[in-house]
Design a protein that fits this description.
It contains 18 helices and 21 strands. By secondary structure, it is an alpha/beta fold. A hairpin with a 2-residue loop joins β14 and β15. The structure holds flavin-adenine dinucleotide.
Length: 541
């Protein structure tokens, strides 16, 4: 414990309550425990890993390089753990999370199968009262919600969605028992990042796979592979270098944009560069490309055209290739799924693509799916229809700040935060990797947040303070900055979860500011300026 200001000596159950056992919650637990705080972490699932606990669908894996995704807080951990693949699959990643919590003896402060239903700020105590679905209640000075940006699965709005009598799964609630596709007629609804990973796997064994596509996405090769013993040695030797690289990149990835315009190079050099990025491992084609591709329409048209050509080269039937080409948005303006032989799946005789723009859903029946041009009989339906993203998991908790204000009401037109980390009117409350925080390679963001929060809590304790919230004008200024940064990007003109549009969720047809689109550097500059000023941006007492 830091001191008796916020620990023993009060009637609080804990110093800090943390929600969520994903990368964000675990990072926060590690850092706050280092301060000696009495912490309790609550998690809905029955194990750690967050996204990697829930998304156990076949083919689920990282798009971030494994060694750039894992925790960096311990050089010893980095040296010990051997990632098997450059982009780890879900089973291995779930093992990693279990290894980490046992390695650092975190399990004793974690409570699984414990969903937080409400968190109310009690002004008389300057503390949060947190309620669980079981009815248990706990009070703590600090509340850290690491509830995740992609947490609440969303089903599509289709008549009869619950009527299907065969096997039905959502990718983000995949069962722990094995699921076989062999000899079955399987329908996959959705072609975002999870859908693409699922489709590649199901196509291998299903008797017939029908892919229902509403929005075609630009998919780019992942080029995954095992990490060879030599590569393993190089990875192990590069801990400091890796840290330096991700910290100096734009979005905390190993890839970062080239600081040149695509118009500064000859068409031949440009083509060579695109080709090189397309064939290289990981997200380079998206995150490590010319800097103007995602902000300038003319530049974007060049990379979009390149990607269109790639789809036409890889898909034999020109009519199917045209359906797989995204005509309604430019490359990189929505989440780019990374794939392994995804386009080749459509050359297989056991795979059919249904373009829902041309032939929309009519209804789901006990036996299958009816679209405007006919009936598709199915044995299994897989919903790869994503999430109530970014704000959904926060709004699912009844979070009440000072004077009875509800977070859900404050965010009724979109999230409003300071640094994506704190909210005016909701004191002593932190959201690692929260809405409008620096995005990209998320564990890097949330590890930074965990450090920031720990430094701040230490400061509060050293100064005998027990209450902190961002000033309203500071929050407004940050929101203006975030809005301006989002509007600079072409993605701001596209409906997607990046801009908060989700036709499957009520009231979510208007675009919102959801993510921080300026660089990680600018983000840290702002966050550190606050620290240097003695947290002048915050009301403290
Ligand atoms: C399939 C998939 C692949 C991805 N790949 C990448 C990638 O390669 N790179 C990358 O950077 N990001 C990736 N992401 C994004 C992913 O969300 C983040 O990497 C990371 O999981 C975020 O960590 P987190 O701890 O903030 O949230 P999560 O990992 O989502 O963990 C949040 C946890 O909070 C729990 N929780 C939520 N609400 C409550 C409540 N009320 N009570 C108790 N517990 C609660 C949830 O059950 C969950 O376990 C991927 C996401 C998915 C779904």
């Amino acid at each position: 414990m830091l001191s008796d200001v916020n620990a023993a000596g009060t009637s609080l159950d804990h110093d800090a309550i943390i929600i969520g056992a994903g990368a964000s919650g675990i990072s926060a637990l590690v850092r706050l425990r280092e301060l000696g705080l009495r912490c309790r972490l609550f998690e809905t699932g029955d194990g750690p890993g967050g996204a990697w606990h829930w998304n156990r669908y076949p083919g689920a894996r990282f798009d971030s390089e494994s060694y750039s995704y894992g925790f960096f807080f311990s050089p010893e951990l980095f040296a010990e753990w051997e990632w098997k693949e450059h982009f780890s699959g879900q089973p291995e990643t779930e093992k990693y999370f279990n290894y980490v919590i046992d390695r650092f003896d975190l399990r004793k402060d974690m409570q699984f199968s414990s969903r937080v239903t409400a968190a109310h700020f009690r002004s008389e105590e300057n503390a949060w009262e947190v309620s669980l679905a079981s009815g248990e209640r706990y009070r703590a000075r600090w509340l850290v919600a690491g509830v995740g940006p992609l947490t609440l699965p969303q089903l599509p709005r289709i008549e009869g969605v619950q009527a299907f009598a065969g096997e039905a799964y959502h990718t983000a609630r995949w069962p722990k028992h094995p699921v076989s596709f062999e000899g079955k007629r399987v329908g996959v609804i959705g072609t975002g990042a999870s859908g693409v990973q699922t489709i590649q796997e199901v196509a291998k064994t299903a008797r017939h796979l029908t892919v229902f596509q509403r929005t075609a996405n630009y998919c780019a090769p992942l080029k995954n592979g095992p990490i060879t013993p030599d590569e393993q040695k190089q990875v192990k030797a590069s801990y400091e270098e890796l840290k330096r690289r991700v910290n100096s990149s734009r979005a905390w990835f190993l890839h970062t944009p080239v600081l040149r315009s695509v118009f500064d190079v000859s068409p031949e050099d440009r083509e060579r560069f695109f080709e090189d990025r397309y064939n290289a491992r990981g997200m380079g084609i998206w995150q490590g490309n010319y800097m103007d591709l995602v902000v300038d329409e003319r530049a974007n048209a060049l990379i979009s055209d390149f990607m269109h050509r790639k789809i036409r080269e890889r898909v034999r039937d020109p009519a199917i290739a045209e359906k797989l080409i995204p005509w309604d948005h430019g490359f990189g303006t929505r989440r780019v799924p990374h794939e392994t032989n995804y386009y080749e799946v459509y050359n297989q005789p056991n795979v059919t693509l249904v373009d829902l723009k041309a032939t929309p859903f009519k209804r789901i029946t006990p036996n299958g799916v009816e679209t405007s041009d006919g009936f598709h009989e199915m044995d299994m339906l897989i919903y790869a229809t994503g999430f109530d993203a970014v704000t959904g998991a926060f709004e699912a908790i009844d979070i009440e700040g000072v004077d009875g204000q509800k977070l859900k009401d404050k965010w009724s037109k979109g999230p409003v935060t300071y640094l994506g980390l704190m909210v005016n009117g909701f004191p002593n409350f932190f959201m690692p990797a929260g809405p409008l925080s620096s995005q990209g390679n998320i564990p890097r963001t949330s590890e930074y947040h965990a450090e920031w929060v720990a430094r701040f809590v230490r400061y509060m304790d050293e100064h005998g303070l027990v209450y902190a919230e961002p000033k309203l004008e500071v929050e407004q200024e940050f929101m203006e900055h975030a809005r301006e940064a989002q509007n600079r990007h072409l993605s701001s003109r596209v409906d997607s979860w990046f801009t908060g549009v989700n036709t499957n969720v009520d009231g979510r047809t208007e675009r919102r500011v959801m993510q921080y689109r300026d660089s990680a550097d600018e983000y840290r500059r702002r966050a550190e300026a606050g620290v240097a000023s003695g947290y002048e941006e915050l009301i403290k007492r």
